[in-house]
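Quick question, first post here. What does this chain look like in 3D?
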Amino acid sequence: MSNVMLGVVAGLVFGALSVALMIPMSFPDKRAALSAAFVERFAIGLVIGCVQLPWSGWLVGLAFGLLLSLPSALITKAYLPILGIGGLGGLIIGGIIHGWVPHV
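> Answer (accepted):
Ran it through. Tokens below.
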């Protein structure tokens, strides 16, 4: 399977897990919050699958997980949960797709 397809699959799984974690929470507009969370987490998987950098895969994932989660964290001021889940998910996805050691 290509890296892009792995990224799509990883993004779908990551998005679904994030939405599942948020279902018990209460939001003024729950549909918008869940949709935004899914799209953000899906984008993390997709972008990690599309990029080719000479870094360790986990570092690529961590960097893009944090970068793509930052706007939501700034808007909601819920820094730790949003950046924590985005960074951890990105780290795992990057390691799975691109490996755990640097490409030389």
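The chain has one domain: 3-98.
The helical segments are 3-22, 30-50, 57-76, 79-98.
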